[in-house]
Amino acid sequence: MVEYLYLFINGDKWVTDESATPFKSFMNIRFFDPEFLREVAHGIFTAFGAPAAEAAIVADHLVEASLMGMESHGVTRILQYTQEFKAGRVKPAAPITVDSETPTSAIVDAHLNFGQVGAHKLTDVAIAKAREHGVSIVTSRNFPHTGRLGAYTTKVAEAEMIGIATIAVPVLPSLGHFVVPFGGREGRLATNPVSWAAPGTDRPVVLDMSTATMAEGKIRAAHAEGQTLPPGNVIDAQGRAITDPKDFYGPPRGNILPLGGDLGYKGFGLGILTALLGSALGGENLTEVSEHHNNMAMIAISAASFPDPENFRQRVQENMDYLRSSPPAEGFDEVLIPGEPEFRKYEERIRTGIPLPEKTTWAEICMIAREFGVSTSVP
To answer: 62: which strand partners?
Structure first.
């Protein structure tokens, strides 16, 4: 296992950086200026050899995810991307090509460039084709981890379209498959997320969800923060329910259940759909061991191809307002539309900063930054 992943998961040795000057601290959590974290991430990625513009795409993506409260896909991923760069599984500045094109479809090959760089190119291709032909579907090859899937469907929504995206993950050398089929106890899928987004009058409506009960990145985050897992989500290698994140990593490694609990066949079915769209449709075999992480598919549907496109955004908003008008049930303050909790968290953290565990995640980032000659001191 690679050094940084070992330290992050097993946590018996940490290196702290006293030169770091965050803005405020509470217990083991420190709050950081998003621009400062963006500069640190950008410096690390350019030190890997990424062009400045491509490093900015990845850094911006990670910081935005942290601002939205999605710690599992935020700046903590610097640790993963470092180990993948060292192992040759991420190749900054690699060319990105568009292959097997038709008027409404294509395959985008990132050649192991950062997943975010490839995914933005894939999304741009999908938007351009849908703008010309009304609808498109674009799939991927050789994409490392793409990050928060909702970022790309949001980009489609901002182009006055509906975006539907999926990710399927092949068998990884380090983890294999760790989501069990409904009724099984050995993993055969990954957490395979699905996202859709549509434009609204104020901001897009965005659903971004795992087809498992939780994302593996959230188990990483819980381990780093010393938290337990919600019951009913994760099992050990013998199929017994567990709540301690370290029991998931083993050895032997545990597994995650498909979304739905007693109705987990629903999440299992959605997980299969992501595999068909992201892998099988693009010519990938999900059952083979693969060094790249994410097989992505994006469907873009242009409102301009349907009646009254000028008022499409307003119709979306009216539907959302109708849903919000439902009186809240006991224990709820209001009905929230998909994406609203993340947008609210973004606005909050722009004011308060991004929280990171000081002696785990931040210490690891500082260690990486020192290795690559990047300052972690606030000017």
So the answer is: none
Classify residue 258 by its DSSP letter. B
If one counts every other C-beta atom within 10 angstroms of the C-beta of residue 334, the result is 10
Q: Classify residue 251 by burial, with Cβ atoms within 10 Å: 0-12, 13-18, 19+.
A: exposed
Total number of domains constituting the chain: 2
Instruction: Please give the full DSSP string across 269-306, using - where no structure is assigned.
Output: HHHHHHHIIIIITTT--TTSB-S---EEEEEEEEGGGS
- Host domain of residue 352: 24-93+339-378
Same domain for 118 and 146, yes or no, is yes
Whether residue 261 is found in the same domain as residue 186: yes
Check residue 171 and report its DSSP letter: B
10-residue block means of pLDDT along the chain (379 residues)?
30 31 54 97 98 98 98 94 95 97 98 98 98 97 96 97 96 85 92 95 94 88 86 91 91 93 95 93 82 89 91 94 97 97 97 93 96 89
Q: Which residues contact 13 (CB under 8 A, 6 or more apart)?
A: 7
Residues 286 and 349 in one domain: no
Give the angle 377-359-235 at the CA atoms, nearest 5°.
135
Polymer length of the chain? 379
Residues 84, 51, single domain; the answer is yes
* SS3 annotation, 189-243: ECCCCEEEEECCCCCCEEEEECCECCCHHHHHHHHHHCCCCCCCCEECCCCCEEC
What whole-number distance in Å separates Cα of residue 312 and Cα of residue 288? 43
Cβ–Cβ < 8 Å for 305, 135: yes
Tell me the pTM. 0.89
Together in a domain, 132 and 202: yes
In angstroms, the CA 44 to CA 52 distance is 11
**pLDDT reported for residue 5:** 31
CB contact at 8 A, 203 and 153: no
